[in-house]
Amino acid sequence: MREIFYRCEICGNIVALIKTGGGTLTCCDQEMEKLVANTVDASQEKHVPAVSINNGTIKVEVGSVLHPMVPEHYIEWIALVADDKIEIKYLKPGMEPKAEFEYHSDEEKVPYTDEDGEIPNCEGQPCNFMCPEEKAYNISIYEYCNLHGLWKTEI
Ligand SMILES: [Fe+2]
What we know:
Strand order of the largest sheet: 9-8-11-12
CATH superfamily of the largest domain: SOR catalytic domain
Helix content: under 10%
Largest sheet: 4 strands, antiparallel
Number of helices: 1
Number of domains: 2
Shape: globular
CATH class of the largest domain: Mainly Beta
Structural class: mainly beta
Distance between the termini: 11 Å
Radius of gyration: 16 Å
Bound molecules: fe (ii) ion
Order of helices and strands: EEEEEHEEEEEEE
CATH architecture of the largest domain: Sandwich
Oligomer: single chain
Strand content: 25-35%
CATH topology of the largest domain: Immunoglobulin-like
Number of strands: 12
């Protein structure tokens, strides 16, 4: 799925591109930086969103080992990005780095889960082991760490 988040390196504005027009996004008189997920050198376990799905409820935890939520270092938001919607849950220091989203697909595709309802992953990494041909939902779950930037899992 395309990356849709941009940040201004001068003022810190972050925007989500709702529709692609083709122009260049600028802020503070310079081009905004397109955020590419999972590219900052930091702990994968604490940043890649861990996802479980149950009856249309997508539960997200950041990450497979919970990320700190202190004022100096915390998860600012968690977002669900699908073909038909964007949903963002804002978090604050002291909260748990978790979010829930409701998602009902028109198509009756059921992702593989283990007996606990968990989608298998490899230490927090999206795992292509069970579904190499197609993704069950075509949804990206993003999170943004104030120090370590943008991370995502695709489901
Ligand atoms: Fe972090």
